[in-house]
Each structure stands twice: as C-alpha cells, then as structure tokens.
Amino acid sequence: MKKIGFLNFGHWTDSPHSQVRSAADTLLQSIDLAVATEELGGDGAYFRVHHFARQLASPFPLLAAIGAKTSRIEIGTGVIDMRYENPLYMAEDAGAADLISGGRLQLGISRGSPEQVVDGWRYFGYGPGEGEDHADMARRHTRVFLDVLRGKGFAEPNPRPMFPNPPGLLRVEPHSPGLRRRIWWGAASEATVRWTAQQGMNFMSSTLVADESGEPFHVQQRKQIDAFHDEWAKAGHDWEPRVSVSRSIMPITTDQDRAYFGRDGNSRDQVGQIEPQLRAVFGRSYAAEPDVLVEQLADDEAIAAADTLLLTVPNQLGVDYNAHLLGSLLTEVAPGLGWR
User: Fold this and answer.
1) b/e per residue, 19-45, with b = 16+ CB within 10 A?
2) With helix as H, strand as E and coil as C, how does 253-284 read?
3) Element holding 159 (H helix, E strand)
4) Cα dihedral sign for 50, 279, 198, 120?
5) C-alpha–C-alpha distance, residues 202 and 204, integer Å
6) DSSP letters spanning 68-136
7) Distance (Å, rounded) from C-alpha 84 to C-alpha 87?
8) Which of 39, 59, 116, 201 has the most CB atoms less than 10 A away?
C-alpha cells in the first residue's frame, strides 16, 4: 500500500485558456480538488508555497479550510520556504490548522528555492545574522520552529496577567500534540538528506535532485532515500520516518488526455543549473496508456523506495480534469503496481 496524493503549485493567470484566472480561483479550486481527491480514495492534498508570484503563498488558511471540508486525507505543503517565516507565529498557525483537521497536517518545509524577487525574505523583515547566509537563516528558523512544536513552556508569565495562567513557563498556543513528528524537509543533496534525518524530520524529495553522480534521476533519488534511512538509524530516533517523492504522471485514457500529454511520452531526464553552485537533474514525466505506465513505473527505484507519491497536477486545466487524472491513476495504474 502506497499513499498517493497530489501536489499543487496553484498557478493562476487571467488568460482565457486557463481555468484558474485569479487568486480566488486557485484557492477555492484547491479546496474542491482536495474534496474530490478524498471522494476518489486518494490520500493527500499538498501545496507548494511561492512568494511574490501568481501561485499559492499563504498555506495555513487554505490548509485549515480543507481540514474543515474533509475528514480523512492528509493535508500538507511541499514546501514552505523557512527564510520567510516567523517560527513562533508559524507554530501557532500550524497548531490551529492541525487541530481543525484532527491531526492530519503533514508540513513540508525547506530552505527554499530561487524566488521571484531578489532576497525576498528581506521584505518580510528577515535577514541572515552575523556569519550566516540565507540557508543558515532558514535552518535557524527551523530549529526554533521544531523546538516550539514540542510544546514545552519557555516564556516568563506576567505576574499580573489579563487572564489566569497555568503554572510554570508558557508556550505558544494552540499546541497540537503529535505535529512535531509530521514535519518534512525538502532536500536535494545527500548532505542535506543526512541533516534532515539527524533533525528527526521526514524526507520530502521533489522532481529534481542535485546531480552528484551522473546516474539517472530515479537512481540518485533512491540512493538519497537509502542515505536518509541509514542516517536515521544512526541518530537513534524512536519512531519510523516517512519519505515522499513527486512525479508528473499522466495516464492517457481519453482523446483529451492524448491531446494534452501525448507528446510527453518520450520525456527524458534533463540536467540544469538552477543556482550557481547547484547542478540538478530533473526527473522525466510519465505519459502513456495505463498498462505502459505500470511497466515504466515499476522500474522507478525511488518510487519503489518511498511510502508516499505526490502527483504534480496541471491545476490550470481545472478541478474536473485533474480529478479525472487522479482517478485514472488510482483505479487503472495503482492496482497493477500493488499500490492499491
């Protein structure tokens, strides 16, 4: 059994060719797609966070709304850029959304990727400390966030408070027990993967990894998963971690599917330079008839090694079409691979 959900970047444009023409459209349709996914038997609704872009940016109102409209699926992010976050305020928002959903939040966080503006986190009031760079700042925010999620008091109470306080030091509220173990880190290199395990976070891997060996994307990704489990065992954590991978998978079952994605059947891994010091390999897309997909996906070593598969969805094609794609995967592809 493998958990299968979707990952939505929430792109919107006022183009007449898009089904998602405004910020309101992408937010409301994201809720509708999550509800449809639960009805189809899917397992999760995850959302990417990008600032200064016509995409999803403020995750917690959306996650809370989905939590109130669904009852079973996991609800998460993939990923929140920690350079932009106030860790204490984030802990409050995350605790509230998790309580509304009944403990179904799965928060993917990370250092973040190149953004739409230069040093966008500075506009949010954050900057690296002395001797830090922006990646160090993200990890510092993360350490505070993880510590606060443990629920231990740390703030000195006012001796004359407006309302009565419980005894001892105070914590941020609302606190959601168990959320600390449902935090994921989006990592692209083996060094970061090992750091993720040391911190006691689950491992979230996307459609790209650092090209560290020249091997096919899925092989390098699987080796990172192996390194994560190896480092987790060394760290001695007393609970089992989880690993997710993202893929573009388009089952072709109708003429409309073929018109949209028939040309993607010959997709191959690609290599690119997304940052000056990061050469990355991007995983191929899968687009074919269900029986062909079963054969192709059976050879993907990273999917086999992960417990969770997140499908990147073309959200601008609308809720009905994306629900059709998810339904095709769940009913016509997943059973052939033993995922259902």
Assistant:
1) bbeeeebbbebbbbbbbbbbebebbbb
2) CCHHHHHHHHHHHHCCCEEEEEECCEEEEECC
3) none
4) negative
5) 7
6) HH-SSSEEEEEEEEGGG--HHHHHHHHHHHHHHHTS-EEEEEES----SSTTGGGGGT----TT--HHH
7) 9
8) 201
- CATH number given to 3-337: 3.20.20.30
pLDDT tens, residue order, the chain (340 aa)? 899 999 999 999 999 999 999 999 999 999 999 999 999 999 999 999 999 999 999 999 999 999 999 999 999 999 999 999 999 999 999 999 999 999 999 999 999 888 899 999 999 999 999 999 999 999 999 999 999 999 999 999 999 999 999 999 999 999 999 999 999 999 999 999 999 999 999 999 999 999 999 999 999 999 999 999 999 999 999 999 999 999 999 999 999 999 999 988 788 888 877 777 778 889 999 999 999 999 999 999 999 999 999 999 999 999 999 999 999 999 999 999 999 9
10 Å CB burial of residue 266 (0-12, 13-18, 19+) is: exposed
AA letter at 264:
D
C-beta separation of 325 from 312 below 8 A: no
Q: Distance between CA atoms of 154 and 170, rounded to whole angstroms? A: 6
| Residue 22 backbone phi and psi in degrees, to 5 | -155, 170
Question: How far apart (Å, rounded) are the C-alpha atoms in residues 89 and 139?
Answer: 16
How far is 34 from 233, CA to CA, in rounded Å?
34
Provide the residue type at 263 as one letter.
Answer: R
Exposure class string for 191-202: b at 16+ Cβ within 10 A, else e: ebbbebbeebbb
Q: What φ, ψ does residue 249 adopt, rounded to 5°?
A: -130, 120
